[in-house]
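Let's do one together. I've listed all components of the complex below, 506 residues spread over four lines.
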Amino acid sequence: MDAFFNRLEHYARLSAPARSRIENAVHQTRHYQPRTALIRQGDRLGRIFVLEQGWAIRKKELEDGRRQILNFLVPGDIFDLQALINSPADHGVETITPCQVRSFETAAFIDAAGTDFTILSSLWWATVQEEAILREQIVRVGRMTAIERIAHLILELQRRTRIAGLGHARGGAALPITRGQIADALGLSPVHVSRTITVMRRMGLIATDHVLEILDPESLVSVAGFDDHYLHLDASPLPADLFSRQKPMTAGL
Amino acid sequence: MDAFFNRLEHYARLSAPARSRIENAVHQTRHYQPRTALIRQGDRLGRIFVLEQGWAIRKKELEDGRRQILNFLVPGDIFDLQALINSPADHGVETITPCQVRSFETAAFIDAAGTDFTILSSLWWATVQEEAILREQIVRVGRMTAIERIAHLILELQRRTRIAGLGHARGGAALPITRGQIADALGLSPVHVSRTITVMRRMGLIATDHVLEILDPESLVSVAGFDDHYLHLDASPLPADLFSRQKPMTAGL
DNA sequence: CGCGTATTTGAATGAGGTCAAACTGAGTGG
DNA sequence: CCACTCAGTTTGACCTCATTCAAATACGCG
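Okay, and this is what the predicted structure of the assembly comes out as:
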C-alpha cells in the first residue's frame, strides 16, 4: 500500500485504525503489461482503483483515430472516485509502463472514508488536485507554445512524481514517456515534439538518454512560466471541525 | 432558488425538507454587472456560490496577458465545492452578463448535503459532470480543428442551458458570448473565430443576429463529431443504499 | 452625434503539421 | 553472435491552418 498511503499522507497523517480500514477494503492487486486498457470508455465501473506502481494515462479518442491524453497517472493516483455513480466511463485509462493496480470494493472504500475524517479529507484533496491538473492542462493546450507546453508538463510530472515518492530530490525526475505520448497529451505532432525536445536539449534544459531528465530546473521553470501553486503541494489538512457539526449521514434517509 | 433547485432535481427529486434545508443555508443573494470578478485567483473562499441568473466564466491568465477560459458557468452551476479546502483559488471566476449569485455558508451547506442523501447525490453528479466537461474541453482544444471546436462548444452550451431550463426545446439556444470569449475558450484568435463563424453561418448551421443561435442541430452535431454522453444527461440517482451501511461521520474523530 | 466595444475582411506571416526517409536501440530468433 | 523486426526518434522539405497586423464596418449607449 506504499504509494497510496504515501499519497494520502501527503495531505494528512493517517492513524493506525485508518490505515487498517483502508487495508481491509482492498479487493485485489494485479499486475499489467504496458498498453493494457484498465478502463474502457463505456465501461460501468464497480470498483475503485489505485495505481501502486507504474504509469498510466487517461485518454479520449475521436472517431478518426485522433487521440487526446487527458492526464498522466502516477503511483498513488486514484481512478475513479466517480465510480460511485453507476454511469458508463466517458474516457479510458491505459497503462504505459508495467503497472501494479489495487482495487477496492466501492462500499468498503466509502465506509473507510466515511468513518475517518482524515481519509475523507485526503480524498477530497486528491480530487481537488486532479481537477486543478485538468484545468492547467487546458491552459497548456489552449494558450502555450510548443516549448512552453512541454516544459510545463515536464515540471508538473516532476512535482507529481516527487509527491509519489519517486524521483530524486532536485531536478532529476526520470519520466518514462515517449514523444508520441507527449504529443497526444499536448495537442502537438510527434515530429514537432521531437524537434522541440531537441532544441530543449541543446539549451541544456533536459537530457534524453533513454528517459527524460531535467538538467536545469530553474531555466525550465522560466521557459514554462511554471507556477506550481495549482498542485497545492502545501496542502494542509481540512479544518478538523468542518464536518463535526454534521449529523450522521443516514439521518435523512 | 429556481436555477439551483432545477439543476439539483435534474439528478434526483428533492424532498420538501431537503429544499428547506438548502434554503436555510443561503447566506445572501447579490447582483453583479458583466465583467465583474466573482473569485480572483489567490482568493481564499469562505463561501459556496450558485449562479442563479446570467453567465460567467472560469479563467486563468498568463503573465503576458494570454487568457484561457476554462469553462462557462450557466444558471444552476456551483462554484466551488472545493472551497471546503482552505486553499487559495487557482483560477478566477468572472461574470460575462449581468448575474444573480447566491452564496451559502459552507458549514450550513455541508450540513444540508450530509443529512440528505438526494442532495449529496446531486452534488456528486454535478461534480462529476463538471470534471467531464473539463476533460472534453481538453479534447476540443488539443485535437479538434477550429470549426469542430466551435461547433462542439456551441452544442455543449446548448445542452447545458437546456438543463438549466433556459433555451428552447430544440436547436434554438441563444448563447450570449462574444467571438473573443469563444477564442479564449478554444485556444483560437478572435479573428479566426469570426472567419469560422462566418463559414458556419454560410453553411446554414447557425445564425448570428446579435446572439448565436443554432439553425441546423443535426449537421452541427455531425460537423463537431459531438457525442453528448460525457454530459451524463441521463443521470440517474445514485443507488440509494450506497451510503446506507455507513457509520456516522463523526465516529472516527 | 460620438465614443467604446465587437465584428468583419484582406494581406502577409508563422508555428506547427504532414510526408517521407534515415537512424537508433531493444528484443528475439536462427 | 548476427540478422531481423518493431517501436520510437530524428531530420529535411514542403504545406496549411491559424495568427498577426491593419483598416473598415457595425452597434449600442450616453
